[in-house]
């Protein structure tokens, strides 16, 4: 290891240790009288204000993988990689009204997960189980991908082997077990401050070092002019415009269906906190646009990705290598720490969200119906450990590309819960049987299309991305479409038709235990009692 890498590694390690210490101390932050409930351990007491929620939700949605993967996509495909910018802009107006309704009804009934809401709204434990399993399946590869971000920085520093990742996640597991959601909420302040500093420095310093923006865009244009791929380039073309728009809209619709996104929302103390955050979170989208430009900067700097263990170039290493190429060693260490910590915050929230789904919608529903709040908290803590161990094993035992492919599938999969969760917050028109039929049809259509997509870059014949070629169904064109949007359309059509048929046949539907006024309750409302399942049970009887 060179002296430069030693400096980077020392600074990375020092910041990592400081942040880990904050994770353990978080257990004393806003400490309640009793941490033995999911409301305290898994939702931070449902008491976070505007600032904490902004950092928590921002730290949750804009992950380390975003930090390395979006520029890597721009590096490899050009303008198509910028889809992440419009989707993180349009998502907030789309979910503004829906999320405050979710907050209200969840605080009235003590819901901890989206599946809790579905169970109460449609009176179907089967539908709730499908939503819970979908959330867990979609979240697991997302957690594993956070390790990809840490791994990319370690490789850039010349650190070989998996033991540093194992140690990092062991520490993460320990302070998440002890402090719950308070740990990532507190660490998110440091994470975001580091990322903002690094990106703002990068956006001014790197172009100056590389000869200006004209040279950067000129280098990118020259690179894509030489490639035979019909869908890359510094501008979109008629082959990828439709897929770009569908991917941006589909990703926007999916973002707040992920259970970890809902966890941050439910942890806020009132509806106004959510409204302020939906207005302020687009600031992260501005930052994301700047991060995406790092891909063009890497092309201009002549960065060559590190060859991975599979013998193929690892595009995720281009940002760490760019920083190593242009920054002084001490600031490169700070930038690497920003990426590393950027992995810990979302990984902690995701593991908590997945554990809460298991506890509330599988363990309590099917294994121990009379589990006490303290038992639920204990089970969720243990489940979060299992989730993290699974994520580490996925990185150690599988090709990292497999996790990336699974994450692409995750976006398609989680979209199939939109009719039950998002539309369910607006209307109770759907029949529970129709929603189950729609989920099955949408899932089958999505998986079938994903199976048909190859990835020429790594030689995989199946599950190679989420852009489905229309030529595969006999249409003479090079255009592609986003699988998630097509699968969701199938889901909705089947759900509507099945609902009409089931209602016409007068098939028994589930009982909705929520009331119209529940969706408008706010802090101070007598119905809003933090984390009391007794309220839900009282309404049900």
UniProtKB/TrEMBL annotation:
GO terms for cellular component: plasma membrane. It is a multi-pass membrane protein. The chain crosses the membrane at residues 6-27, 48-74, 80-100, 127-149, 161-178, 185-206, 244-267, 279-303, 334-358, 379-398, 404-426, 433-451, 481-502. Pfam families: SSF. NCBIfam families: monocarbox_MctP. Belongs to the sodium:solute symporter (SSF) (TC 2.A.21) family. This is SSS family solute:Na+ symporter.
């Amino acid at each position: 290891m060179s002296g430069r890498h030693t400096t980077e590694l020392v600074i990375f390690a020092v910041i990592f240790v400081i942040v880990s210490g904050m994770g353990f101390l978080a257990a004393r932050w806003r400490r309640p009288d009793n941490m033995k409930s999911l409301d305290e351990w898994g939702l931070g007491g449902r008491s976070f204000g505007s600032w904490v929620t902004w950092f928590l939700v921002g730290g949750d949605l804009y992950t380390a993988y975003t930090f390395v993967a979006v520029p890597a996509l721009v590096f490899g495909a050009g303008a198509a990689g910028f889809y992440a910018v419009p989707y993180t802009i349009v998502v907030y107006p789309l979910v503004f009204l829906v999320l405050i309704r979710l907050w209200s009804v969840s605080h009235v009934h003590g819901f901890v997960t989206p599946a809790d809401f579905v169970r109460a709204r449609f009176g179907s434990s089967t539908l709730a189980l499908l939503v819970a399993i979908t959330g867990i399946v979609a979240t697991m590869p997302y957690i594993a991908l956070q390790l990809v971000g840490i791994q990319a920085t370690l490789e850039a520093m010349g650190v070989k082997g998996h033991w540093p990742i194992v140690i990092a996640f062991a520490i993460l597991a320990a302070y998440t077990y002890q402090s719950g959601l308070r740990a990532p909420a507190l660490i998110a302040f440091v994470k975001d401050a580091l990322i903002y500093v690094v990106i703002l420095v990068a956006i001014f310093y790197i172009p100056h070092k590389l000869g200006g923006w004209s040279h950067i865009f000129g280098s990118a244009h020259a690179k894509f002019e030489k490639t035979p791929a019909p869908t890359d380039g510094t501008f979109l073309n008629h082959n990828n415009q439709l897929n770009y728009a569908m991917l941006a809209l589909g990703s926007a619709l999916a973002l707040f269906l992920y259970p970890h996104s809902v966890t941050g929302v439910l942890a806020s103390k009132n509806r106004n906190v959510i409204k302020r955050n939906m207005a302020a979170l687009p600031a992260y989208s501005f930052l994301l646009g700047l991060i995406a430009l790092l891909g063009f900067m890497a092309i201009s700097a002549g960065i060559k990705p590190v060859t991975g263990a599979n013998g193929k170039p690892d595009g995720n290493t281009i940002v760490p290598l760019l920083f190593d190429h242009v920054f002084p060693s001490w600031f490169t260490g700070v930038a690497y720490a920003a990426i590393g910590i950027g992995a810990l915050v979302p990984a902690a929230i995701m593991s908590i969200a997945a554990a809460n789904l298991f506890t509330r919608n599988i363990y309590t529903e099917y294994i121990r119906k009379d589990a006490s709040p303290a038992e639920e908290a204990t089970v969720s803590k243990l489940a979060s450990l299992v989730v993290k161990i699974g994520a580490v094993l996925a990185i150690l035992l599988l090709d990292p590309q497999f996790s990336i492919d699974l994450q692409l599938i995750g976006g398609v999969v989680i979209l199939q819960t939109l009719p039950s969760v998002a539309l369910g917050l607006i209307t109770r028109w759907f029949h529970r049987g129709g929603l189950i039929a729609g989920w099955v049809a949408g899932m089958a259509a999505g998986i079938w299309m994903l199976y048909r997509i190859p990835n020429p870059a790594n030689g995989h014949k199946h599950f190679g991305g989420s852009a489905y070629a229309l030529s595969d169904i006999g249409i003479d064109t090079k255009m592609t479409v986003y699988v998630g949007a097509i699968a969701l359309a199938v889901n909705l059509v089947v759900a509507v038709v099945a609902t009409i048929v089931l209602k016409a046949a007068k098939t028994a539907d589930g009982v909705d235990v929520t009331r119209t006024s529940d969706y408008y309750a706010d802090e101070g409302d007598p119905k809003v009692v933090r984390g009391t399942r007794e309220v839900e049970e009282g309404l049900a009887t």
